[in-house]
Amino acid sequence: MKILQGIRAGKRRCDNGIKIILRRVSIFKRLNFSFLLLILTTAIFLTFFSFYKYSDEISDNIDRYASLLVQNVKMKIQDSLEAYETEALAFYDNSQVIAALQENAVLAREGVDPENDRYARNRYSVENRLYNMRRNQRYIVNIQFVSPTEQYRMVEGSGFTRGGLIKDMEKFYQSDFYLLPQEKKGYPVWIDSQEQTWTFYKNEQSIYGLGNIVTLCVAVYGPIDKDFLGVLIMNIDLKAFSGAMEGYESYRDGNAFLVGRDGVLLSYNPSIQAPAFPKESHLYELMEKEKSGITEEKIDGKKVLIAFERVSGTGMFVTYFADMDVLFAGTHHIRNLCILVLLITVVACFVISYYVTVSISDPVKELVEVMQETGGGKWTARYPNSGNDELTVLGERFNEMTDKTDQLIEQVYRSEIRRQEISISWKNAQLSALLMQINPHFLYNTLDIIRWEAMYEAGGESRVTQMIEKFSQLCRMGMCAGGNTITLKEGIEHAKTYLEVLNFRHTEKIGLEIECEAQENRLYMPQFILQPIMENSVIHGFEDGSHGFSIRIRAFCREGKLLLYVQDNGKGMDEQELELLRESMERTETEEGSIGLANVHQRIRLFYGEEYGLRINSRAEFGTEVEISLPVRYQSENMEGNREE
Questions:
Q1: TM spans, by residue (predicted)?
Q2: 196 vs 25: CA distance, rounded Å
Q3: Hey, which end of the chain has fewer CB within 10 Å, N or C?
């Protein structure tokens, strides 16, 4: 199972890899290349497969026919050779001739003169028999019988000598013509070597020996005592084998030869255009080694088919030579015709595949261009439909989708504008409500302080007058602001004045420490954000006390933000109180008792965003620190209109 799962996983990876590679190529190239690849592969395979199968079959037929040719020619030559061997055996079977040879052999050993009548009668009997054998066969050039002491020639009945002779008897006794037949013990021996030319002559006056012959040699023995009597020699004209090629005129594309050890003995239907038998001996050595077969050789730069068969009992071979280019000329013509048809087919298929591919890729390109235009915001672009295929249906659906999308965008755009207008109105209304919450609350607390102070100061009016003056100054500072945001310097002055008003109620003043590292004259901040925090410290942190209490205000810029820290040394809060305060600040609806901090936090977030506002840190008995996070602004903003100038 794991092996199968691994194979399936490998197949999936392979499929995905192929798809990824193909998807990197355009549709036009992909389709065109695929069509051409399939068509070319199929056409080339069918063309050359058919051609090579046809060529192989022709080659096999040629080999078979060439082999049959040399075999049949060989059989005809063997029939002729057997006829001459039969004629030679007829001489051997003639008891009168054998008796004459035996008697002359005895007389020769006894030293009788060859001119003796008895010797001469025997001699005539043998030579006349040789003549009669010659008369029965037209292609026998010469018949001789050579005994260990002399040679017998053909003689007519009138006593006239005919036929050839051997001039150098001593050399003859050392030659294969005399020795090989003795080794074969009476079996016929065929010799085709060039030694025939300087061994056998037509007559004593001849300078040149017999040519174009093949020699049959048979050793003759006594029938009873098996004494060697001599060698019967039969010189046969090669024309005796010229009729072996009759009936094979269709093989004129090549040359057939009867070949011996020393070269060509006979040519059949010679053709100048067909290959000739090479002069090198390596080919004969090859044939002698293989005996029969078919091979291919390079002769004079041409590839030549060679079929050969050895003639049994001889050193001769029937060979057939044919030029491969000539034999396969028709095949080459068919090959060229196939290639031409292949080229025409490929061109036609390329044209068809091109137009089919273009009919798919061009509409796809147009659809992609229209999609790119609409993606860039040009919703008026439409796909021009010009067909009845699936791409046309896809284009029509895209146009419908574009129309509906355009309408939907218009509706959403208008709805969004309306929603933003409502949201802005809501924020402005909520901001105004928060501002309205601060002023009554602040005034209530201030009047309460004045009330308590008047109770303690019933005897003197100067302090109350000062408190009212400071309170009036504080109100006047808020009312004289040119917009809803004021400079950082004005905000700090508000805080100082506010604390001075608070300190009227205490004998020991609440301390105020200010550290400003920002550009207080250039930076702007919302108004009334420090006073509620300081009020929270006095009421909840100091519990209306003043002894030893102080407030520290720090201001600086960091990473595009204006950070204000208001820190007191009051009683602080434990974790539970701190968590409850933080939760109440995140509510959109402010609760009684926490209106100051929640009001400031919501105002900042409504105007600047969720990333700004208040963050409170406190520990029991260690005081409370409030961090105010604001964006850096170098110009005044109208919070009521909720817009930037």
A1: 33-52, 337-356
A2: 82
A3: N
| Stronger pLDDT, 120 or 63, i.e. the higher one | 120
- Cα 634-638-643 angle, rounded to 5 deg: 90
Instruction: Compare 95 and 546 and report the one with higher pLDDT.
Output: 95
| Whole-number Å distance between alpha carbons of 532 and 614 | 12
Please spell the DSSP secondary structure of 10-56, one letter per residue.
Answer: HHHHHHHHHHHHHHTS-HHHHHHHHHHHHHHHHHHHHHHHHHHHHHH
Residue with structure tokens 């969720």?
610
Q: How far is CA 642 from CA 447, 613, 639, in A?
A: 32, 16, 5
Q: What is the Cα–Cα distance from 607 to 229, expressed in whole angstroms?
A: 148
Q: Which two tokens stand for residue 159?
A: 């006593």
What is the rounded CA–CA span in Å between residue 317 and residue 337?
39
Mark 213-241 as b/e (b = at least 16 C-beta within 10 Å). Answer: bbbbbbbbbeeeeeebbbbbbbbbbbebb
Q: How confident is the model at residue 639 (pLDDT cuts 50, 70, 90)?
A: low
Q: Is 90 left (phi over 0), alpha (psi -120 to 50) or beta?
A: alpha
Give the Cα-Cα-Cα angle 435, 490, 528 (nearest 5 degrees).
20
Model pLDDT for residues 535-563, shown as the tens digit of each residue: 888 888 887 666 778 899 999 999 889 99
Q: What is the CATH number of the domain that holds 470?
A: 3.30.565.10
pLDDT tens-digit map of 350-398 = 777 777 777 777 777 777 777 777 777 776 777 777 667 776 777 777 7
Domains held by the chain: number: 2
pLDDT value at residue 564: 92
Place of tokens 């007191």: 568
Rounded CA-CA distance 292/310 in Å is 6
Instruction: List, as one string, the DSSP characters of 197-239.
Output: TTTEESSTT-SSB--SEEEEEEEEE-TTT--EEEEEEEEEEGG
- Which of 242, 273, 300 is a domain's end point? 242
Q: Which domain holds residue 602?
A: 420-631
pLDDT, tens digit, 9 for 90 and up, residues 191-222: 998 899 999 998 888 888 998 999 999 999 98
Q: Is 593 in contact with 554 (CB distance < 8 Å)?
A: no
Reported as a pLDDT band with limits 50, 70 and 90, residue 28 is: low
- pTM value? 0.50
Of 181, 214, 242, which residue sits at a domain end? 242
**Inter-residue contact 209 to 193 (CB < 8 Å):** no
Distance CA(438)–CA(207), nearest Å, equals 157
Q: What CATH number did the domain enclosing 164 receive?
A: 3.30.450.20
Which tokens in the block code for residue 621? 């008995």
Q: Measured between alpha carbons, how far is 155 from 587 in angstroms, rounded to an integer? A: 155
Nearest to 438 by CA among 528, 351, 564, 566: 528
